[in-house]
Amino acid sequence: MTRTRWALLIAGLSLAGCTSQVDGEALPGPTSGPSEQAIASSTGLIGNATTLDPCSLVDPVALSQFGTAQRPDQEAYDYCWLKLPVDGSTVAVRFGLLERVRGNLEAKEVEPVGPLRIFEENPAKDRCARYILFSDNVSLIASADTVDTPGTTVPQLCSITEKTTTTIAENLIAREIEHVTYPPSSLGSFDACNAVTVSLAQVPTLPAGEVISYPGRHQCRWGQAMVPSLTLRFVLGTPSTAPSVRYETIAGKQTSVYPVDIPGRTLCVAEVRHGTGREMAQVVVRLTPTSPATACAAAQAVAAEAWGKLPA
Prior knowledge:
Strand order of the largest sheet: 7-8-9-13-12-11-10
Number of strands: 13
Strand content: 25-35%
Radius of gyration: 19 Å
Low-confidence stretches: 1-8, 13-26
Oligomer: single chain
Structural class: alpha+beta
Distance between the termini: 27 Å
Number of helices: 5
Mean pLDDT: 91
């Protein structure tokens, strides 16, 4: 993964879209009976979201009209990404992140796929995104972007996103998806929201009562606004080796602690490798502009609690 994308993903700018939870009533839908709603629910079509293999939602061959998509090493449990070369650019196609929708979905409703409602974000020059909305007010996002090749223009971005979304919806309706069996020691089956409680007070001005859980349970967020907020997420990769990384022993584990330069906020990450593979746990603290030391002290305090609760 490039350092640019890693910073963006940590910042929460290119993963979560407009479905982040906000106060309000559930998004209204077309009138339908209980059986129809059950058919189109996330639990009815996906089952256990924690064990969903997001890469099973789209076969790379489905995008062959745009180029030869490749499935590189994955970045997270919550979503899958494909690398699609198009006209000299590299398009990152990401899909699978499930979020609970509370409030208005800031996107335009387009043609449904079977019983599933589809919404499209207002396209940007370097990114297009669509959402599948299930009847239980859970959304699944699919997007295409050119973050890895900045300055390039790919006119097919929204067509790629449309094709990806349609393919996912059709596979869900046909129940053509797969699930993963995680070993007991894996982070894949551990609920991130259960790892942090008493250390929430160490994050300055954090509204600890605002807890945002995700259907997959691979991440948890405290604080509905971007700042202040805290996220614990389980990802796949290797710890950062950027020059700004400081190594600390936290809860007996070597931990990488580093600030991330994001305009308008102060952000610090504490991350640890879990086991001998590519599993990692990350604590991300986002504060209004302040010293990185303040944010990193908070991240370390949370990590001290979280690391001690991870499966052995």
